Every structure is written in structure tokens, then in C-alpha cells.
Amino acid sequence: MKNDSDYLNNLRHSCAHLLAxxxxxxxxxxxxxxGPSIEHGFYQDFDxxxxxxxESDLPKIEAKMREILPSWTMFQFNEVSFAQAKKLFxxxxxxxxxxxxxxxxGKKLLTNNPGDFLDLCKMGHVENPSQELSRxxxxxxxxxxxxxxxxxxxxxxxxxxxxxxxxxxxxxILQQKEARKxxxxxxxxxxxxxxxxxxxxxxxxxxxxxxxMIRRTLEHWLTKEKENRGYQFVWTxxxxxxxxxxxxxxxxxxxxxxxxxxxxxxxYVLKPMNCPHHFQIYNEKPRSYRDLPLRIAExxxxxxxxxxxxxxxLLRVRALTQDDSHIFVxxxxxxxxxxNIIELTLxxxxxxxxxxxxxxxxxxxxxNQDKYMGNTKSWDDAENALIDxxxxxxxxxxxxxxxxxxxxxxxxxxxxxxIGREWQLTTCQLDFVQPENFDLCYINEEGKNEKAxxxxxxxxxxxDRFFGIxxxxxxxxxxxxxxxxxxTLIPIAERHxxxxxxxxxxxxxxxxxxxLDSKNEPMQARIxxxxxxxxxxxxxxxxxxxxxxCISVRHRSGVETKGVTLxxxxxxxxxxxxxxx
Amino acid sequence: MKNDSDYLNNLRHSCAHLLAxxxxxxxxxxxxxxGPSIEHGFYQDFDxxxxxxxESDLPKIEAKMREILPSWTMFQFNEVSFAQAKKLFxxxxxxxxxxxxxxxxGKKLLTNNPGDFLDLCKMGHVENPSQELSRxxxxxxxxxxxxxxxxxxxxxxxxxxxxxxxxxxxxxILQQKEARKxxxxxxxxxxxxxxxxxxxxxxxxxxxxxxxMIRRTLEHWLTKEKENRGYQFVWTxxxxxxxxxxxxxxxxxxxxxxxxxxxxxxxYVLKPMNCPHHFQIYNEKPRSYRDLPLRIAExxxxxxxxxxxxxxxLLRVRALTQDDSHIFVxxxxxxxxxxNIIELTLxxxxxxxxxxxxxxxxxxxxxNQDKYMGNTKSWDDAENALIDxxxxxxxxxxxxxxxxxxxxxxxxxxxxxxIGREWQLTTCQLDFVQPENFDLCYINEEGKNEKAxxxxxxxxxxxDRFFGIxxxxxxxxxxxxxxxxxxTLIPIAERHxxxxxxxxxxxxxxxxxxxLDSKNEPMQARIxxxxxxxxxxxxxxxxxxxxxxCISVRHRSGVETKGVTLxxxxxxxxxxxxxxx
Lengths: 581, 581
Hints:
Number of helices of chain A: 19
Oligomer: homodimer
Number of strands of chain A: 28
Shape of chain A: globular
CATH class of the largest domain in chain A: Alpha Beta
Mean pLDDT of chain A: 92
Structural class of chain A: alpha+beta
Largest interface: A-B, 57 and 55 residues
């Protein structure tokens, strides 16, 4: 019980209160704004008044928290009237704004009082704070606009985390340290993979040649695997009339669409999804039962609004290229098609060494039926089909109530990377609603019209996010088949350059990505640079190598093998590339 | 002299007057609006009043034109005052609008009077209309909004053409007839290559699986050829802050940008060009003289506004994917880099059998210097570099005065297709201006900053337009390497299906795109369908073929070869694909 997500949320949210209390005691005149639990921890926002707080102040604040903690034996809640609330919080403009808002929405106004600290609050808390909150750590500070809007004041956000046990906390801190080393934004810059240009805009990364080489290699491989499984690739533009999204319901139900633009007298939007485009392709000609399952795929860039403060390198972007597909099936084909998708998914995970994963089956929120389109029977059938598939494949799985898309339930795969962090990757959504909206029919054996069902599938999710995850998973040391430069040849002196050039040409003819580093620097410096660039293999060429028609092969790990012939090296490389190791 | 473009323009514009005269005589109450010469002919717009004119009326109008023509011995011009002009044209609201406008702009008001017909006019005319205008033909009718705006009245547009000789007219009419058969919009639908969806919007084509297979095949091939020549591929998003285009000058000088949209508090636009994005990539790290020439390439979709009435299938679109590249060079590298570009271009033309082409070298319009950025010296150097390159390669070429982009002169290649029509394809623009705008520098041998020059190059132009041209060039019968389905296997009876499936698997393993047509239809019907679909090869399989372990190979031309073994067929196909025939 202690590890379930409700408990963790309560624990961390409680700890955010403790942080607020400590800061308000240490810095008179500071005001706390909001302090929610988030994935892996919590934060608390402060208007620091005349004070400035930075990461070097965190130990002092932690010490104050530990000093206060023993006195926090329990949280007391009181419902208060609008007038009482306004009186209690009259010095805190952020709480005052929330009080007005809560009251306006008809919400109850609750205060809690742990120890001698009063706060306006609407979330759950732990029962014995003095005991349960002791395994905490403050992590970092950042600027954050009040309510996420650049129009408001910039507040100081302090991040922290709290775990039920010291062991869990220690593991997390170690993982964070490792994660910082592997930060894809840091590695992305060092390895020249991508860039974020303020002139282009936040959330719109640009891929440098090396980054795009990796992304394209992923894309070509996945495309081939899909084609081998009967997927057909299409291309659709990045905009459409907003009417198309009114027909699909995205306009009404999906909140991350960009604002529209006017072309002629029509309203157009950047596409947030490809489904309506692919439905146009499906409906371009009459379809027969013989055509199904029809698997339409596209590696397509879609545009989704994320707040400027929430975009993050490649992991959270405004322009994302999905490995998207829409599979049109007859109802009795759903199970076997989901089997095909799971087969492909597991093959792909294996390629990257992802062994620890579980399926989340996202269903409706029964308390919030307005969020969804379609009838109850279809939803029940769809939810059951997904649960059955997970059971059939013995996938570890759990139910995510209320996580479904507005048009149907889905399976999402949660995958742990090399340092134990969990990422949501593959998504497979089952949809009986859009076939109604777009009249997606086929002629059955009796010559009658029947509605198809649609599976929305993205195996990697988006190439951008997946690439970001891979950078961190591999710590930038990509396996040979993905490495943008697979081999660097290093002629020791100028007289070895010609031999190196010929060697490079021979490797290049086999499609191996090879560079020649004949910079005017000592050999050791060039080895160091290429190792830092995480090039899998270096080929060192000196007098001995030239006279014996071979090279010395040095792996980026430092292991060196002397006297390797061209043909041996070539076949070794090609075999590794072929097997993706 | 008689064939030069000024003469042709005068001839056709004069013929448009003749058309106007005939229509106004035949249909009392009709008004003529404008009647310019266009590529390959002319048109004249009419407000037909209570009349309706369609293509079946064209012979009658032609007859009237021939009846009038002998009396048109010469054009008389008179300059008239504003008041006189308004009196002369008081019944024609379109001319009245033009009179107001010309007067407002301070232009002279001229009337011309051939025979007994008065018209407001500002263009050149032929000297002896009665003799020179006789080789004309009316071609078609269409609706067209007055001044191209949907807010105005829909007029009737009559298209026609006129040539200096009967032979040229006959050739053109024959070519047009052939072009109609090859119309890429018609073939695009029949062969399931692409679609135009009113729900997505005009000018935004969607590619069906077969069309995208061709486009992708082109793209992968061209990408490989460029990589072999040292180009490095990148990816950039489809939007950017409008400030980026203010820096590049597109905002001020380029008139086909879409209207902006608001994200956060910034103004963003769909990118009409990739240059500013690629400059961000160039500027991401310090560049050394050793890095140049640096060839950045992207197969990138850009968005350009075209009027809804002017979009045309794949040939004129609002979303176009360019085979774009920006080559950053030192000034002394310009010539050799242009040589490389011409070599690549000619190799590509040869692949498609384009043998008849000429280079247009576009220079400044000396009368309109405001259109351009940069200083005179740079422009002179750049224009001379391009002219020298054309001479060095002995390319047939001519100068297009005033056709330059705002940042530099360019070479465009004009290419004739299989039925003799001329298309503008490759463009290579030399640019000394953007390096100033974006401070595109490199460190030279002495450790000092120098400005690079930029070559903007697209070999095919855009994949969309080039694909549209290829559809018409090949009349839909794509060469084997491009054909979306390369082979269809046709088992004569159900008992031959298993053998056909095995045969198909073997071909597919070699990467050959093969389909099995085991529809419940007679063999002859299936051969007919696949021939209409222009599948290069059909493999017919009956009892004889199964027992002899072979197939009968039928080419779409009808030529059939019996008793072909799998291995012979396979190697024949692979060789043709490899050599792109």
C-alpha cells in the first residue's frame, strides 16, 4: 500500500507544505503559491519578495524543514467560509486569487494546519507527517511564471522529492545523478545531434546532420519492418481546414491544438493528429472486405501546443514526428491485429535491450462521461478487447482509469531504460467512434456496407521523444548500427593519409559511415576527441599498418586490436550492423 | 525575330482583342474585362450578362473572329484624358475600374481602335493584324473571379492561342491533345497516386500508397546521390517565429507567405523557405575554412500561398516538398561547386531521358533596384559567376532580366518533356546577401573571420511538381525502378495460387515490389486491369508454368515471353532496377 501512487502523491504534497513552512520562516515576507506533487517528487512556488533563493540555499532550507518536522504530528482540516478564507490569507495575493477562483467554481474552501502553519489546500495528506516525511531531499530551483503564463510574475520554484523509505530515496538520487550525466540536451549539444534555436521558437528542435542520421536510420528500419508486415506508407500535409477537426471531434475535445490561421476565407490549423487525413485516403475509393486489414502508415510531423515553460529538449516538443499508423479492420480481426502489433512492439524493444515493461490499459473515467464520444456498448467491447490481448500475451499490465482518448480506450507501454527510469512509449488505441464520424465503410461478402474499426498505433511514439530517450538510455554511446559516425580513421602522420583515404573509400562503398581525422593534432588528442564523440571504432594507421596492409582497431571502450585486415574489419562491422549490436 | 517572346506576346494579346470584339458582337450586353497573353496563348475574361457561353459555342465565336479579321488592318492608339476615358467606357464597369486605377497610379490612358472596336489597353500589338492573327484557335472556357478574388463576380474566361505559322499551331494542338491524355490529375486518380480532398483544402494534395512509393523512391535515390557527393542531411520544423523571416528579409520581400499565427505572445509562420533554418544550423558551432564547402540538405516541406483558383494538382500547390540544399562556400570555391551541381543535375536529367534543356540565368531588373538586397559589386560578381559556369559547361543559355530572387541571381534549368513541353526544374541561386543578414562566417587560415557565400540549390525543384511532371512525361507508365507495383503475378486458376505465392515471396525478398492478383475474374480481365494500371510486368501462371517451374512474363506493352525461370526473371528485374531503365 505504501508505494501506490495515491500514497506517494499525498506524501509529496505534504512535504511541499513542509517546504513552504520552512521557507516562510526563514524568509519573512515571502509568500507560497502552489505546491503539487509531480512525477518523482513535488515542487512549491514562492514569491520571495525581496529575497533571492538559489540552489546553494537548499541545505539551509532542508535543515529548517528537519527542525520543524517533529512538531508536525498531524494535518487538521477546516472548512472555512469565503470571508474567513479571505481574512486568513489576506497577505498572500496568490492564495487570495485561488480563494476567489475556488469560490467562483463553487468548490469548498479547506484550510489545513500542520503544527502552526495555515495553508489553503485541496489535496490529500499523510497521517503522521513527523514520521512519514523524513525521507526527503530538495533538488533544484527554477523560475516559473505564476499559473504558467508569461504575463504573470516570475516566481521561484523549489523542486524536491520524498520517498517512503531511505533506500528508495537513495536509489532515486543516484539515478538522478546518472541521468544528469546522460541529459539528452547536454549530450545533444556535445555530440552535435540537435539544436534549440530561440529564433525558431521553443519546442521546435532542429536536427543537425548527426542527429538526423540517427533519426533517419531509426525511421528507415522501422518503415521496412512495417512494410514487411503489410503496412502501406502515405504522405499528408501538415495543415487542414479546421472543419476536418470539427468532424473528427478534435476541435471540441482535444486541447493542444494551435490557434488557427486564415487562408482564403477558410480557417486552417496545423494538424495535431493524422487520423482525419488518413481517413480521407481510406475514403478515396470504395473498400472491400478483401482490402482489410488495411494498414496506412506515415512518419508524420504533427503540431501540438505545449506551454513554453513545459517544453523540454526532444522529450516534450511542439513539433513531433510520429511513427503513426491507422489500421482499418473488421471487428473479428481486432484480436489478431493487436497480436501483430504486440509482436512488432516486442521485437523493437528487444533491439534496444528494453526488457522491463508493462502495459497500461487506459479506460474511460466513469465519473466524467462527457469527455468521450460513442456509445457504452462499443466502449465496453473495445476495453475488453485490449484487456484480453494483454492477458493473451501475458503482458504485465494495469488499468489506467480515465486515461482513454475521447474516441476509445488504448494500451500504452511503459518501458524502463538502462538506468531504471520509466517512459511511456508505444500506444495502440482502439476506435469505434471515428468510423461513425467519417463513415469508414467496406463492402462485405454479401455486398452490404459495414463499418470498419480503427486501430491508432505508434510504436516508438514520436521519433523525437524516442530519440531523446535513446540518447539518455545509451548515454550518447549509440550502438554501431545507429552511430552517426561508425568509424574514424586516424592516420598517425601525413604520409599515412593516402592509405587511410583508400581504406575509407572501401568502407564507404559498403555503406559504412566513416570519417577521416587527419587534423594537425597528436594521435592521442585525436583518439581522445573521437572517444568523447563516442565513435564506436577508431582505426589507427601508422608505418606498421601501412606496410602490413592492415589497421589497429580501437573501440571507444579503450580495447585495442592490432593488425586487423580490411576484409576482416569490414565483415565484422557489417555483421554487427546487420544484427543491430 | 517572329518567334521571340515579345512578338508572341503581342500576337496573342492582339488576338485577345479580336476575341473580345467577336464576343461583344455576338452577345449584346456582354462586357470584356482583361485579355492578356499567357504562356502558350491568351485569355479574355467576359461578364456575359444574361448569356451563357460554353465550349460548344467556341466554333461560332471563331467563325465570327475570322469574319471580322480582314477588316483589322492596323491598331490605332490614342491617349485620352480621364474624363474622355470614362465617357468612352461608361457601360463597362470593369474598364471603369481600371480607368480609375490607372489614373490613380498616374499611368497614361491609351485606347486602341482596330477596325471599329475601341478598347482600353496598355500592351503591345502586331502591325498587320489581318495577316498575322490568322493562325489562332479557341481552346476552352472556365470561370474566373474578376481580379482573382472570390469576393468579386465570377466571369467567363475564354482561352485561346495564336502562332506565327500554321505548322506551329498544329504542333501545339497535337501536343495539347496528348497532354490531356497524360493529365497528371486524371492519371493520379486512375492509378491511385494522390488525392485532393476538399476537407483538407485546395493546394494540399495527399499521397496515396502508390504515389508515395514513387515519391519516396525518388527521394531516397536523390538523397543517396547527394550523400555520395558530400551533402549532409538535416531536419527542421515547418514553422518559425516571424522575426526569423524579418531577419532574412522574406517578410519584407517575399509575397507568398501565409498569414501568421499566434503562439504564446509570439507571431509564428509556416516556413516558405528553409534558408533561415539552415543558417541556424550553420551558426550552431564555429566553422573553420576546413569545413567548407559545407553542404546542408533537407527534403523539406515548405508552405507558400497560391490563390485557390491557381492551384493545379501537383504542379502548383501550397505545400511543397523541396529537395533543398544550402551550400556554404568560400568565394574561390563558387565555380567548382557550381560545376558539381551541374554534374549532378545532368546525371539526373539523363536518368529520366531529358535531353533538351537550356539554362536561364536570372539577373536583376535594372529598372527596379528596390526589389533587391545587397550591393552592386556583389551582384555583378554573382551574375558573372553564373554566366561563366554556363559557358564553361557549354549549356545552351539565355539571360532572364529581372527574374532574380531578392538576395541574388540564379540559374534555372528549362527542360522539355517527352511531348515537347518546357518545364522549369533545377534552380541554383548564388547569394552574398544572406551571409550578411545572418553573419555566416568561418575562420580562415589566418584565424580571421570571413563571410561565406551561399548557394541555394534544388535539383528537382519540388518532389510534388517533379512527380506531377513525371506522371505526364511517362504518361503514367513509370520505368521499372519507379513503378509502385513492379510485377503482378496472375495465377490462372485457384490451384496455381500456392505456386504464385511462393514465387511472390522469392521476388519480395529481393526487394521487388510484387502483387498477387488472384481475384475471381477471368485471366484476360486481370491482364487488362494490370495493363491499365501500367504495371511493368505480369507473370502468368498456369499448369504448364507450375510443372516446368517457370512463369510466362508479359510486359505492359503486350510483349510476352514464355518459360521464364525464377532466377532469370529475378536477375533481369534487378539489373533493370539497378540501371534505372
